[in-house]
Amino acid sequence: MLKNSLVSTFDFVKSGKKILALELKNLQQLHQCINHNFQKAGEILLNCSGKIITMGIGKSGYIARKLAATFSSTGNPSFFIHPTEASHGDLGMLSSGDIIVAFSKSGESHEIIVLISFIKHLDIPYICITENPSSTIAKSANVYISIHKTQEACALGAPTTSTTAALIIGDALAISLARAKNFNVKKFSFLHPGGLLGKKLLIRVHEIMRAKNDIPVVDWTCSVFHAIIEIAKKNFGTVVVLNNHKKILGVFTSKILISLSKLDLDFRNTNIKTVMTSTFKIIHPNILASKALEEMKYSNVKFLLVAINSYLLGIIQMRDILNIGLY
Question: Is 53 exposed, middle or buried, given 0-12, 13-18 or 19+ CB atoms closer than 10 A?
């Protein structure tokens, strides 16, 4: 037990559910914010030839930072500028063609208001996301998106529901912009090469499969003994059986071998076709490795044969995918 730990009778579960219900109730009204102003804001961003600059103070600043990251990761170069730092030299980071997206719950954030005349002088359009459409920042903006006043989850008024609402509207704006610009999987994965997301969107089956030459492959006329020899040579527990046309006929696994070892069989004179299984799964080499993993989990198998038109190219195992971190 932790030192000085307190035994509380407070019901955190009940409180948490009550707060969640309150926020969800308020957020259900957000669809009303997606209107002609939202359309205009999207069109302004669509015509941005520079960068998208986000700004905000306090909790709104954290939402602005997150939105800048979302814009950038979906193909629209963006960064956050702190309004206070902007008035002390960071305005020099702005250039022609840029667009500003300012977050302010009240629309009266002094640190942003003092920048308005300079932003206008630089002829940089700005979008305001606020709860107060009659505010100073909203009135001077090229367009404002008005988030209907929300009931904060905190009884003391700390920004909670309102920041969640601003985040959702920001996400809706960023993803709508990405869709308008046909930002696809290939472009998205290019911007995410280092993490799990990039791996899921980039790595395909043929890149990590065991090639045909590296796995046991036998003709359907061979014996079980010959198949066992191939298993030993390639140090691989699955043998692929091909027909006369070199197409996949079946598989013989170490699991089947264990079962056969309990029987009184002459492996040298037992044809592989009589003991192999014709139940197997095939996948195309260009399918994403993450999709192959999903297929294995769904079908409850540990490997898939990689082939085109039943011509074997290799095998991909679940452990091959897990080893590169796709889980």
Answer: buried
State how far the Cα of 276 lies from the Cα of 128, in Å rounded to an integer: 67
CB–CB of 191/75 below 8 Å?
yes
Residue 81's nearest CA partner among 104, 39, 36, 112 is 112
**Residue-wise over 135-146: b if at least 16 C-beta within 10 A, else e?**
bbbbebbebbbb
At 226, list the tokens. 């010959």
Contacts (Cβ under 8 Å, ≥6 apart) of 215: 234, 236, 238, 240, 314, 315
Q: What is the pLDDT of residues 7-38, one digit of tens each?
A: 678 888 999 999 999 999 888 888 888 999 99
Task: For the chain, give the number of residues.
Answer: 327
What does the angle CA 230 – CA 231 – CA 237 come to, to the nearest 5 degrees? 150
Query: Rounded CA gap, 211 and 248, in Å?
Result: 15
CA distance 13 to 31: 29
Model's pTM, two decimal places? 0.62
Domains of the chain (ranges, CATH numbers): 16-183 (3.40.50.10490), 205-322 (3.10.580.10)
Please report, to the nearest 10 degrees, the dihedral formed by the alpha carbons of residues 12, 17, 23, 25 taken in order. Answer: -150
Give the CA distances from residue 221 to residues 114, 148, 230, 245, 314, in Å, rounded to whole numbers and listed in that order: 85, 75, 14, 13, 21
Q: Are 277 and 257 in contact (CB under 8 A)?
A: no
